[in-house]
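Q: What changes when zinc ion is included in the input?
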Amino acid sequence: MNTWLQANIPRAGEEWIPLREKFEGGIIESVSVLEEFENNVLHRVEPYLRDRDILRLEKREHVIKDPLAYYVPYHFSEMGIYFRINKMISDFRAFVSKYPWPNNITVNELWYVYVMTIFWHEMAHHVIEDVATLMEWMGKARYPLMPHLVEEMFCEFNAFTTAEKQLSPPNRYNIPILPYANLPSGISKGETAFLNRRLILSCLYYHWGRNNPTSTYRPIVRIEASQAVDGLWNGLWNAHKGGYEVVKAPYEIYKRLYCTTL
Ligand SMILES: [Zn+2]
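A: The predicted holo structure follows.
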C-alpha cells in the first residue's frame, strides 16, 4: 500500500457530538405559516416526482431505503437520490413543533438544515459507491464495501459533520425541495449562523433518536468503515462537496435529484 493511501480519514471512533446545554426560546411560527410553507414545497416538487421508478426498484438489491430518502446506485439507469417528500413533511412538522426555537430562527432555516442533512447522507452512499468502483478497478474490493449498518452510521456521520460546515448545495446545483436558491442569512455566515446550525442539528439529532446507543443511524465511524474507504474518502468527499464528478458514473448525481411520495 502507498503511504498516501494509509491515512484513513475519518478515523475509527470519530463521532458527531450534539450540544448538551438547554436553551430558551419561543414557538417559531404559527401553524398557518407552516402550512403555506409546506404547500409551497409540495408545489415545487411536482415535476420531480418519480413514484413509478421507486415502485419498480424499491425491493431490488443494493437500492437503499432510508426513512426519508432512497439512494438508487448507478448500475440502475434510474440512479439518483429520491427524497421521500410526504414522510419528510410530516416528520418536519413534528420536528418544528417539538422544540422551543429561539426567535431568530425561521421555518425556512430549519427546513434548509433538515433537507441538507438528508441530502449529505444520501450523497455519502453515492461516494461510497465511487470508492467501491475505484477499488474494483484496482482489484482490491467490490461494492458493497462494508456491512449495511456500518455504512448507515458512516453516512450519518458525514451528514451531520458536513451540514454543520456546508449547507449550500454543491456548486449551487438545484435541490428541488429547497424553495430558494440562496442560503437563508441566519444560517449562512458568522458566529450566530454557526451556533444556529449547531443548535438545529443538535435538535435533529435528538428528534431522530441518534443519541440511542442502538440507533442504526448513530453518526459514528466504525472501524470497518474507516478501513473500507481506505484513504480514498477525503478527496472524493471534498470533490462532491464542490460539485465535481470524479469517478465517471453514467449520469451526474447532482442532476439526479428526485422526489417520491412513497
Ligand atoms: Zn442511508
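Observations recorded in class: Residues 26-260 form one domain.
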